[in-house]
From TrEMBL:
Residues 1-21, 321-366 are annotated as: Disordered. Residues 1-20 have a biased composition (Acidic residues). This is Protein FAM98C. GO terms for cellular component: tRNA-splicing ligase complex. Pfam families: DUF2465. Residues 347-366 have a biased composition (Basic residues). Belongs to the FAM98 family.
Length: 366
């Protein structure tokens, strides 16, 4: 019985070791992945180095440095009070574990292996050390996600304030203080714009309707699709332009004038981008006169587009040469009188001669 009991105990110990080994492997992979997601680039970013440090536990300075980094990052995005100091060697392992116990208590750690038992011996096993890394990493990741929505409006307010300052500068208003409330700035800008709009002739706005949130989303989708269409067409035009310019470099004269041609061509080419700068605010600021399409032959349009390359020859009035089908009268048909004995007589005579030949044949046969 004693031998069988010892064999069962050995089997149970072996099963426990296998379970601990599988648990350590799972925690190692999970912890390394979490550290990578959090942006950790220290010496323990690889699984092999992380496992070696966790096997040494609190006596390893690299392991304690990683824990200190996680706690400091957690304090920067949360209201954590407890702190952990970096260690200088194995002698500081007990102090480190005491401080880490306070952190676990404040964070309400649910893992009993990190909150119960002897405080100075909790972080001596690899599984507990890896469990600590995973717990701190998940807490840091959750704290960053919770902190993100509160930081975005502040950044958004700063961007709005910067735009309002630029608008005020363009309207000639005094310098706006960064601490001024946005509502007050909006009132000042509205007053100034109303005053200027009464003195400057301005057509009504092109966009006059009030949209619902769902309609704004639809408008944004349309804007995005039109930007993609513009980008595709612009890339095609730029490619055609490049091919056309390359064809000029094939001539013998271009080999001599190649450098001056590039000096003129490249500044213009770099200014041609496939991305559109038109945004939704441009639509809101558009006026009705923007929707008027002028023909390319318009005199006002030609004044802005005429150049030395495009020669426009202005001639006088061209004489009317006619040739319009709708103004030509069709000719009237000419009718002649029917001739006496016309074609019908010849036909009658021809058939008469044929009958006469038939009669002669019949007489000969008889």
């Amino acid at each position: 019985m004693s031998e069988s009991g010892s064999e069962e105990a050995e089997a149970e110990d072996k099963m426990e070791e296998e379970e601990d080994g599988g648990r350590v492997e799972i925690l190692l992979r999970h912890g390394a992945a979490l550290l990578q997601e959090l942006g950790y680039t220290g010496p323990l970013s690889r699984e092999e180095a992380l496992l070696c440090s966790c096997e040494a536990g609190a006596e390893c300075q690299l392991f304690t440095s990683l824990c200190v980094w996680l706690v400091s990052e957690l304090k920067s995005v949360s209201h954590l009070v407890e702190n952990v100091s970096p260690t200088e060697g194995p002698a500081d392992s007990e102090t480190f574990q005491l401080e880490m116990s306070g952190v676990m208590s404040e964070l309400h750690c649910p893992y009993t292996s990190l909150t119960t038992g002897n405080v100075t011996s909790r972080l001596l096993e690899p599984a507990n050390c890896l469990q600590l890394i995973v717990f701190l990493s998940t807490e840091l990741e959750a704290a960053r996600l919770l902190k993100k929505p509160t930081s975005e409006p502040a950044q958004h307010d700063e961007d709005v304030l910067h735009e309002l300052c630029l608008i005020g500068k363009a309207l000639g208003l005094p310098e706006i203080s960064p601490d001024a409330p946005v509502s007050e700035l909006m009132r000042e800008l509205e007053t100034k714009i109303t005053k200027l709009s009464g003195t400057v002739p301005m057509s009504p706005p092109l966009f006059k309707v009030q949209l619902q949130p769902e309609q704004w989303e639809t408008l944004q989708e349309l804007h995005h699709s039109m930007l993609k269409e513009y980008e595709c067409r612009m890339r095609m035009l730029v490619t055609r332009f490049d091919v056309t310019v390359q064809s000029f470099h094939w001539s013998e004269r271009a080999q001599v004038k190649g450098k001056p041609m590039k000096e003129v061509y490249w500044p213009l080419r770099e200014s041609l981008t496939s991305e559109s700068r038109i945004t939704i605010p441009h639509l809101l600021a558009a006026r009705e006169d923007y929707s008027r399409i002028l023909p390319t032959c318009n005199a006002t349009f030609c004044l802005k587009t005429r150049s030395a390359i495009q020669k426009v020859l202005m001639i006088g009035s061209v004489p009317d040469r006619g040739g319009r089908p709708n103004e030509i009268e069709p000719p009237m048909p000419m009718w002649e009188k029917r001739r006496e004995g016309g074609g019908g007589g010849r036909g009658h005579q021809r058939w008469g001669k044929r009958d006469e030949r038939k009669r002669k044949k019949q007489i000969i046969i008889l």
